[in-house]
Amino acid sequence: MTTQRIGFLIWPSTKALTLALAEEVLRVAQKVHPEVVYDLAFLQAEAPNEGDWRLPGEPWNGRLDNCQKLFLLADEPPLAVGAALGAALKQLVRSGCVVGGLSAGVYPLAQLGLLDGYRAAVHWRWQDDFAERFPKVIATSHLFDWDRDRLTACGGMSVVDLLLAVLARDHGAELAGAVSEELVVERIREGGERQRIPLQNRLGSSHPKLTQAVLLMEANIEEPLTTDEIAQHVCVSRRQLERIFKQYLNRVPSQYYLELRLNKARQMLMQTSKSIIQIGLSCGFSSGPHFSSAYRNFFGATPREDRNQRRSSSPFELSSVPAERG
After folding, report:
1. CB of 191 within 8 A of CB of 164?
2. CA-to-CA distance for 127 and 145, rounded, in angstroms?
3. Helical H runs in 183-314?
4. Pair (136, 22) in one structural domain
5. What is the 3-state secondary structure (H, E, C) of 24-83?
6. What processes in GO biological process is this protein linked to (predicted)?
7. Which pTM does this prediction carry?
8. Is pLDDT above 50 for 41?
9. Mean pLDDT computed over every residue of the chain
10. Would you say residue 193 lies in a domain?
11. In terms of Cα–Cα distance, which of 138, 181, 212, 155 is closest to 29?
12. What DSSP designation does 125 have?
């Protein structure tokens, strides 16, 4: 019987659920198979702020030793990794430890260069920001990635999927199946499966023409199609397409398309350093004033006002989106 030491390095933003999911998979594995023994260690990467939820773990004491695997956990991208902690993590990797990032735990690994040249599963909310900040990392929209000695999961229930894959690799598929059964997990998902739920589930409808039309819109953000072009592509008349959208989404196609492009623009505003004009053009707006007017009508603030307000309320946005001139 061999004991494997697995560490969890936890940032203050970590939700209790993220840690609980990872821990529970390993606890259940020991319960259903007594030959599997884990020594779990919990360390706090930073001191929590006053009033924050208190997660388990001792403050990091300057050492990271004797772990066969170490998972970094965060649910909002940490601003930076301290020099001493960064050095300790790099030394741990050199010693042969397998390291992983759960949810926004991919950010500290990327900041230290420990994901350069590796695939990393990044939550769809952070895809634009992460790709811009860490071009040497192969960011994917997978549920999780296991690339050599790097493990990453995009967050949420994908943490369970990754840990079940770890159990299967280390102890066999039978144990992973037994744990998933104990946790009432319907099926063990593969890492390469998509993060976002199927489009028809998001829309609340399985109407095939509606699904086809929305997929076309999502694929043509920078150069929007006209309603007539969309109707032609999905083989219905314009009036029929408008009736379908009105029935299922209570909007005409052009309104839904505009909201789709504006929401994409807002995501880029908050997550990238691209200029407002660049973002407007990449979301299908012909000019800065056109973009600003449409944005203000929908969100109640101009793109610049919205970005500035988010900067002042979030230190992460402030650090990741440089101030614009003019």
Report:
1. no
2. 15
3. 199-203, 208-219, 227-233, 238-249, 253-271, 276-282, 288-299, 303-313
4. yes
5. HHHHHHHHHCCCCEEEEEEEECCCCCCCCCCCCCEECCCCCCCCCEEEEEECCCCCCCCH
6. positive regulation of metabolic process
7. 0.68
8. yes
9. 85
10. no
11. 181
12. G
By DSSP bridging, strand 144-147 and strand 150-153 are antiparallel
Query: Other CB atoms closer than 10 Å to residue 280's CB: what's the count?
Result: 25
Q: What is the mean pLDDT of residues 219-244?
A: 93
Burial (0-12, 13-18, 19+ Cβ within 10 Å), 40: middle
Residues 267 and 148 in one domain: no
- Provide long-range contacts, Cβ within 8 A and 24+ apart, for 295-300: 295/262, 295/265, 295/266, 298/258, 298/259, 298/262, 299/262, 299/266
User: Can you name the residues that pair with 74 across neighbouring β-strands?
Assistant: 103
- Shared domain for 217 and 104, answered yes or no, is no
Residues 45 and 168 in one domain: yes
Q: Report how far residue 248's alpha carbon sits from residue 204's, in angstroms, rounded to the nearest whole number.
A: 8
Q: How far, in Å, CA of 325 to CA of 322, rounded?
A: 10
d(CA 221, CA 8): 40
CB atoms < 10 A from the CB of 286, how many? 9
**Burial 169-194, CB ≥16 within 10 A → b, else e:** eebeeebbbbbbeeeebeebbebeee
Q: N- to C-terminal Cα distance for the chain?
A: 66
- Both tokens of 152, joined, read 């990453």
Query: Using an 8 Å Cβ cutoff, are 77 and 16 in contact?
Result: no
d(CA 244, CA 236): 10
